[in-house]
Design a protein that fits this description.
The structure is a single chain. The protein is mainly alpha-helical. The protein contains 18 helices and seven strands. β4 and β5 form a beta hairpin. α5 packs across α7, α11 packs parallel to α13 and α13 runs antiparallel to α14.
Length: about 500
């Protein structure tokens, strides 16, 4: 089968589907920089804690959860709310920070050219400052703030929430390898971001990353306390490999490279990259080291090729589905997260392929770097509005986008516009069920998106399709920086 004809066929099918829709979106009118700026604004809307009046760019957000940690005499103020609720979950928050850090490292020049590198660094530091507090005692990590069941039974602004700020931690008697290792990865990756601009802070992050990694490795066990909302279905081997990879990148210590090889983590046969499953990220990260001359990581380069063969349409090994209009579909429930995370890896690996004159062979199909870029770009175009529904799935981007994001703070009148305190019940009865646009635009939030068959109704109660998350947007930051750079004719990243 001729590869080029296959790709042309795919593009034609998608183009026909899009052109058949009744909308005015034009591919050439995409503004990646605008989408990039807005994607970062959403992350700022998710901040918990004390917001600076001088730097808070989200007018309807105020201080929230200023007593977090007090019941255990610990300061846990800060961090991020994961999605449309008011709980701070450690596992998705750490993955969010890791991906922001990776984006800042791999696409730092592109972010700087777009004028957004400082904002991304601020977003990273908002998370790492919280993790420093959460890991202040050796062999212990605070991993969640907020009773999730009480929170999900209440619809209130974060600024006035009345639900219990219950604290959850892991320690040797209650281990949580996935969360500890992911937090170690976030801190290690972030330490590289800050090494040249704030070395003492970078060293602090790296020291905490090392300690958390040792804690995770020496006290192995899965923490179920974040279930049923963030259960780890993939186990903890991927997080251990992920953390060790970032620590090796940050330190170049043979302790971590030898650990990766000796542990012989099985990261093969994966076809998704997410807050739960990091194996593909490990493969891409170590492939970079392999191409830089570290041959011990060849097995991970080979596994990375298997991953990319499993996510590219028309590859003989493609493992997923596509919506009729061309969105990668993995499963219901924030499905756009898989499109943004996969696109990030596609672009990072395309850079490696370009820089090292490599091709990707999937049985009889051969893909070049440009093919990976094309698929990643098509995924982002779909999210931003080039789809049969004629709708951008990023709030505030384009002419038509979701108006009813499943999000407490966005959907309830701002504390700055009323003196009335909205109760949990009133929040549900008046604001959650209100058949009207959210009063506060959640600019830059990418919602979960359509189902497998491209069904999508802008209906707040449908959290699977309308709820945004930080881990949808975090990989998107790097992707949009790369696409903006390409649109301006900038060179490929190294």
């Amino acid at each position: 089968m001729d590869y080029k004809l296959t790709v042309e066929r795919f593009v034609c099918i998608i183009l026909a589907a899009v052109l058949s829709a009744d909308h005015q979106f034009v591919l050439g009118e995409l503004h990646y920089k605008d989408a990039l700026q807005k994607s970062i604004l959403f992350l700022e809307a998710q901040r918990s804690g004390k917001l600076s009046s001088g730097s808070n760019r989200i007018w309807w957000r105020g201080d929230s959860a200023l007593t977090d940690g007090q019941m255990e005499n610990v300061d846990l103020v800060g961090g991020y709310y994961d999605a449309g609720d008011n709980v701070k979950y450690g596992l998705p928050m750490a993955f969010t920070v890791t991906m922001l850090a990776w984006g800042a490292l791999h696409y730092g020049d592109e972010l700087a050219a777009a004028g957004e590198l400082d904002n991304v660094r601020d977003a990273i530091k908002w998370g790492t400052d919280y993790f420093i507090k959460a890991s202040s005692i050796d062999n212990q990590l605070w991993v969640q703030v907020g009773d999730p069941f009480a929170d999900h039974s209440c619809w209130q602004n974060p600024e006035i929430m009345e639900t219990p700020r219950t604290l959850y931690k892991i320690d040797p008697s209650t281990p949580g390898t996935e969360i500890a290792a992911e937090t170690a990865a976030a801190l290690a990756a972030s330490s590289i971001v800050f090494v040249a601009i704030d070395n003492p802070y970078s060293l602090l992050l790296l020291d905490r990353a090392k300690s958390l990694f040792d804690f995770a490795d020496q006290n192995r066990g899965t923490y179920d306390g974040e279930c049923p909302f963030y259960c780890s279905f993939s186990g903890y081997d991927d997080e251990l490999a992920w953390a060790a990879s970032w620590l090796y990148k940050a330190t170049r210590s043979p302790k971590y490279s030898q650990y990766i090889i000796q542990q012989n983590f099985s990261t093969s046969n994966v076809s998704e990259f997410s807050w739960d499953l990091k194996s593909a990220g490990v493969q891409a990260l170590l492939s970079n080291l392999y191409f830089s001359g570290e041959s011990i990581f060849e097995v991970y380069k080979n596994q990375a090729e298997m991953f990319f063969c499993s996510v590219i349409p028309y590859s003989p090994y493609f493992q997923h589905s596509m919506t009729p209009g061309g969105l990668l579909y993995v499963r219901d429930g924030a499905n756009t997260q898989y499109a943004t995370s996969t696109s990030f890896l596609l672009l990072v690996y395309s850079d490696l392929m370009s820089n090292h004159n490599q091709s990707l062979q999937c049985d009889y199909q051969i893909y070049e770097a440009g093919d990976l870029i094309a698929f990643a770009k098509q995924q982002i175009h779909y999210i931003l509005g080039w789809n049969p529904l004629g709708m951008s799935f990023m709030v505030g981007f384009g002419d038509r986008y979701p108006q009813q994001a499943h999000h407490r703070g966005s959907s309830i009148i701002s504390i700055y516009e009323t003196t009335t305190k909205i109760s949990c019940t009133e929040g549900f009865m008046v604001w959650f069920s209100r058949p009207a646009p959210n009063p506060n635009e959640l600019t830059g939030a990418v919602v979960g998106g359509p189902d497998r068959y491209e069904s999508f109704e802008d209906y707040r109660a449908d959290s699977c399709k309308l709820e945004p998350t930080t881990y949808i947007n975090a990989p998107l930051v790097g992707v949009l920086a790369k696409l903006h750079s390409m649109s301006m004719g900038s060179p490929v990243s190294t």
